[in-house]
Design brief:
Distance between the termini: 41 Å
CATH superfamily of the largest domain: HUPs
Number of strands: 10
Radius of gyration: 19 Å
Helix content: 25-40%
CATH class of the largest domain: Alpha Beta
Structural class: alpha/beta
Strand content: 15-25%
Oligomer: single chain
Largest sheet: 5 strands, parallel
CATH architecture of the largest domain: 3-Layer(aba) Sandwich
Number of domains: 2
C-alpha cells in the first residue's frame, strides 16, 4: 500500500482516503463520493477495511462486529474506489499479544468525555490506527462522518498536533427515513428494538425544539431530565450518556443554546448506538 501511494505521489496524483471497519452502507458510500469530489476524477480514492482490535474493550463486540467483505468489495467497485486496503492484524500490530507491539497515539483533551469516558481505551486505539493508516496510504485528504463527531474531532486534533500533511473533511450524517443514523451496528437490532432506536433522533429533535422555542439559554440539567424521560418511555432503551457541549473544545456546557452540539449514547437492547447534532 505504501509503495503504491508513493508511486502516486511521484506522479503528482491526489489521494483521497476513507477509513472504515467494513460492513459498508449508504453512509460509507457518501464518504467515498465526497472523497472523489474533493480530489477530482483523476485522483485515487482509497478505502480501508480494518476492524481495529485496539479500539475495542475486552467486553465489547470485536468478535461479533458485522463483516461481509464480498459485499463490501462489490460496493466499492460500484462506487468507483481505486484501491481497497484490507491489512491483517499481524501486519498492523505485529506480535501485539506477545508484547511485541508497544507504541500508541494518545490525544489528551478532546478524548476525555463522552465516548472517552464510556470507553476509556477507545480513542487511543482510534488515534493509533488512523495515524498508522495515514502513514501507509499517504492521503492528501481523508473523509470522516459527522455521526462520530468526537472521533472526527480527535482525528483533526491529532492531524494538526502531529503535523500530518492531510486535510480532514467531516461529511454529514446519513439517516434512515425515520431519522435513525446509519450504522453497521443497526444490524444487531431486533424487529422489536428497531422502532425504539429512533429515540436517539427524537431526543435530538426534542432538544432542537426546546432551543428554538426560547430566546434565553436553557439549563442543561433541565433539558437532560426531559430527554431522559423520553428515553425511559422505550422499554428496550437505556441511556449511557447525554451531553451538551462546545463543538470546538468538546467541553460540557451548563447552558444550552443555539450553535452548540448535543451527543448521546443509548443501549437499545444489547446494541449501543450513538448520535449527535448541532442545536
Amino acid at each position: 500500500m505504501q509503495r503504491l501511494a508513493r508511486h502516486w505521489k511521484l506522479a503528482a496524483t491526489k489521494i483521497g482516503f476513507v477509513p472504515t471497519m467494513g460492513y459498508l452502507h449508504a453512509g460509507h458510500l457518501s464518504l467515498i463520493h465526497q472523497a472523489r469530489q474533493l480530489i477530482g476524477p483523476h485522483g485515487q480514492v482509497v478505502v480501508s477495511i480494518y476492524v481495529n482490535p485496539t479500539q475495542f474493550a475486552p467486553t465489547e463486540d470485536l468478535a461479533k462486529y458485522p463483516r461481509d467483505l464480498t459485499r463490501d468489495r462489490a460496493l466499492c467497485r460500484q462506487a468507483g474506489v481505486d484501491a481497497l486496503f484490507m491489512p491483517p492484524d499481524a501486519q498492523m500490530y505485529p506480535n501485539r499479544e506477545a508484547g511485541g507491539y508497544s507504541t500508541y497515539v494518545v490525544e489528551e483533551a478532546l478524548s476525555r468525555g463522552m465516548e472517552g469516558a464510556s470507553r476509556p481505551t477507545h480513542f487511543r486505539g482510534v488515534a493509533t490506527i488512523v495515524a498508522k493508516l495515514f502513514n501507509l496510504v499517504l492521503p492528501d485528504v481523508a473523509v470522516f462522518g459527522a455521526k462520530d463527531f468526537q472521533q472526527a474531532a480527535v482525528v483533526e486534533r491529532m492531524t494538526r498536533d502531529l503535523n500530518f500533511p492531510v486535510k480532514i473533511f467531516v461529511a454529514p450524517t446519513i439517516r434512515e427515513p425515520d431519522g435513525l443514523a446509519l450504522s453497521s451496528r443497526n444490524k444487531y437490532l431486533s424487529a422489536e428494538e428497531r422502532p425504539q432506536a429512533t429515540v436517539l433522533w427524537r431526543s435530538i429533535q426534542l432538544a432542537r425544539a426546546r432551543v428554538a422555542k426560547v430566546k434565553k439559554p436553557i439549563a442543561s440539567k433541565k433539558l437532560r431530565t426531559e430527554i431522559t424521560r423520553l428515553i425511559a418511555t422505550c422499554p428496550a432503551a437505556r441511556l449511557d450518556y447525554l451531553e451538551f457541549f462546545d463543538p470546538v473544545t468538546l467541553r460540557p456546557l451548563a447552558l444550552v443554546h443555539r450553535g452548540i452540539r448535543v451527543a448521546l449514547a443509548v443501549f437499545v437492547g444489547k446494541t449501543r448506538l450513538i448520535d449527535n447534532a448541532m442545536l
